[in-house]
Write a structure and sequence with these properties.
Region (Disordered): 569-592
Mean pLDDT: 76
Protein name: Protein kinase domain-containing protein
Membrane topology: Single-pass type I membrane protein
Number of strands: 31
Shape: elongated
Largest sheet: 6 strands, mixed
Keywords: ATP-binding, Disulfide bond, Glycoprotein, Kinase, Membrane, Nucleotide-binding, Serine/threonine-protein kinase, Signal, Transferase, Transmembrane, Transmembrane helix
Number of helices: 19
Strand order of the largest sheet: 16-20-21-19-18-17
Oligomer: single chain
CATH architecture of the largest domain: Orthogonal Bundle
Number of domains: 4
Structural class: alpha+beta
GO molecular function: ATP binding; calcium ion binding; polysaccharide binding; protein serine/threonine kinase activity
CATH superfamily of the largest domain: Transferase(Phosphotransferase) domain 1
CATH class of the largest domain: Mainly Alpha
């Protein structure tokens, strides 16, 4: 069919056209009048000045009324009310039509590319074309066609997209250019294009051999240089690492610690040693964050497995100042002197890193703080008897530090987070970074105030004088935690922060202490036991340190309370348990209900009266309990 493809100077490509059969559909029909291409949108007529297939744009000028009156046009409006489903240009509002000239965006059909490809009237006829969506702002108005990259022409015509010869483009290739269908290949000098392999190859075989030989020779040379450099770098690195580790060793007062460990008795230090950094990195998988057990006041604790399969806790100090190094040395110094079943055991330390490391025994059940305050709504794993035992063991450890160690030691950071529990819920006092040891003839030492808010002795806070009674005050806070299961600083019913000790002492003064006791304690304990612990806690929390009991006295009171909780055993039970142990005879006294009467009975060593054929029970006095407990190792 003979179709006109121009009107005046305007080229009219398919799918547009003038004559029937020369356009894709009627909405692409134009009119040529007086060498001007016209399109109508009644009541206004426009002149088409350019049609862009690549960009999908129609450039138009609005005709004047004079021109409008003297020119015919073919309206693309047809079908009555169905026009809006047939219009050529989508997404135009009234403001677009009022312009003297403008650019209209057009599409082949109001379909998505996915739907259009399945339509028999799919407009992209050329094999080397592709479908793209057309939008006006956020409005999707249909699809149009475009030649694929490397091709040009009309995508709406069969075989309309033809290959572009990129080699004809100036300065497009710095070498030998070979045109391919839809692309091209630029081969460097001294190479040629292989149409089978579609790659650039050397012009001659000898060039390839020469290149391979040169490459192999250069490769061996580079490999030799690389191996030599690697060996040299490793040696230099090892030497530098040794120097750095020696520097850290001196900075971390390694010589002092070596002397300290070697000077203490062999019974204490037979398992204490200085570890290498490499050994601890291997134990913690290079201090993997997943191995972190917790963050203490003086460092981060990691779980590690030594080469002998011992599971340990490795404390990495977070020091940045000399004072932090002094605290590390202080902790090693103190722990190297202590051997007690209720104090965490020190296996050794490492001084080859920027921050020194301590290696402890691993305590599996976490801290007393976590057990008491982990989930307030759940029942605590510690029964009343467990709480008394934990308090007794912690008191025993602190009493040992204050009076039984080679040199008196004040912990200075006693809190529930520093009381660990092993798999049997045995108490282990830990974190001696802030502790101070003093000479045997000293009663106190003046220091910079350290500790944890809520546990801090007010007298120590105001005077700076650290005494053993400072630890007693902090231990009193722990007793109140065990009774109430509240944190030292807790939120009251009004949502305000409140000091637990002040609140507890106030309720005790008002004789309403049972209002703050943990419900589990109320269920499991008797009134006299609660009164006794509350009394001991109140004595420990006295404002003046001189009025507080010593830790040894606190330990005795707790032992007395625990002795009351133990069921008495008959003579036959004792003989079965102890063999030939003789019973302790005492005057029968009827037990009383108050805690004072019970304390008096135990102090006197009394037991219940029995008939003539009776078997004697074994209820010890406080002194007898102390004598019996002294047989067990600390």
């Amino acid at each position: 069919m003979n179709c006109s493809r121009s009107c005046g100077s305007t080229n009219i490509p398919f799918p547009f056209g003038f004559e029937p059969g020369c356009y894709a559909t009627r909405r692409f029909q134009l009119n040529c009048a007086s060498n001007r291409t016209l399109i109508g949108r009644p009541p206004v007529k426009y002149e088409v000045t350019n049609i862009s297939l690549d960009d999908g744009l129609l450039y138009v000028n609005k005709l004047s009324e004079f021109e409008d009156a003297n020119m015919n046009y073919l309206s693309i409006y047809y079908g009555g009310s169905g026009y809006f489903g047939q219009q050529l240009v989508y997404g135009l509002d009234k403001s677009d039509l009022s312009e003297e000239f403008g650019v209209w965006r057009w599409s082949a059909a109001n379909l998505t590319c996915e739907n259009a490809k399945n339509d028999s009237a799919y407009a992209c006829r050329s094999a080397n074309s592709e479908c793209i969506g057309v939008t006006h702002g956020k409005l999707y108005i249909g699809y149009r066609c475009k030649c694929s990259p490397g091709f040009e022409g009309n995508p709406y015509v069969q075989n309309g997209c033809t290959d572009i010869d990129e080699c004809l483009i100036p300065n497009n290739c710095n070498g030998a250019c070979y045109n391919l269908k839809g692309s091209f290949r630029c081969c460097p000098h001294a190479t040629s294009f292989d149409p089978v392999g579609k790659q650039c190859t050397p012009d001659k075989r000898q060039n390839l051999i020469l290149g391979v030989s040169t490459g192999i020779g250069s490769g061996f040379g580079v490999l030799a240089l690389a191996l030599g450099a690697i060996v040299l770098v490793r040696r230099l690195k090892r030497g530098a690492q040794r120097k750095i580790r020696r520097a850290f060793f001196r900075k971390n007062k390694g010589l002092l610690l070596e002397q300290l460990i070697s000077s203490t008795s062999e019974s204490v230090t037979h398992s204490t040693r200085i570890f290498s950094l490499e050994e601890l990195e291997k134990a913690t998988n290079d201090f993997d964050p997943t191995r972190v057990l917790g963050h203490g006041g003086h460092g981060t604790v990691y779980k590690g497995i030594l080469s002998d399969q011992r599971v340990v806790a490795i404390k990495k100090s977070k020091m940045v100042e000399q004072s932090e190094i002094d605290q590390f040395v202080n902790e090693v110094s103190i722990l190297s002197q202590i051997i007690h079943r209720n104090v965490v055991k020190l296996f050794g330390c490492c001084l080859e890193s920027e921050v020194p490391l301590l290696v402890y025994e691993f305590i599996s059940n976490g801290t007393l703080h976590d057990l008491l305050h982990g989930d307030p709504g759940a029942k605590c794993l510690l029964t009343w008897d467990d709480r008394i035992r934990v308090a007794l063991e912690a008191a025993g450890a602190l009493a040992y530090l204050h009076s039984s160690a080679a040199m008196p030691i004040f912990h200075r950071d006693v809190k529930s987070a520093n009381i660990l529990l092993d798999e049997n819920f045995t108490t282990k006092v830990s974190d001696f970074g802030a502790s101070r040891s003093i000479s045997i003839d000293q009663t106190h030492v003046v220091t910079i105030v350290q500790g944890t808010f809520g546990y801090l002795d007010p007298e120590y806070y105001y005077t700076g004088q650290l005494t053993e009674k400072s630890d007693v005050y902090s231990f009193g806070v722990i007793l109140v935690e065990l009774l109430t299961r509240k944190k030292p600083i807790f939120l009251n019913s009004l949502g305000e922060q409140q000091n637990l000790c002040h609140y507890f002492l106030g309720r005790l003064k008002d004789e309403a202490v049972m209002d703050v006791i943990d419900s589990q304690v109320v269920e499991e304990a008797n009134q006299s036991g609660i009164d006794e612990i509350a009394s001991v806690a109140a004595m420990c929390l006295r404002t003046r340190g001189g009025q507080r009991p010593k830790m040894k006295e606190v330990e005795l009171r707790l032992q007395l309370l625990r002795a009351r909780r133990r069921p008495c055993r008959t003579r036959e039970q004792e003989l079965r348990r102890d063999g030939d142990t003789k019973p302790l005879l005492s005057t029968p006294v009827k037990p009383r209900s108050t805690s004072v009467a019970m304390a008096k009975n135990v102090e006197l060593g009394v037991v219940a009266d029995n008939p003539p054929s009776r078997t004697l029970t074994r209820c010890y006095s406080m002194e007898q309990e102390m004598a019996a407990s002294s047989e067990f190792p600390r």
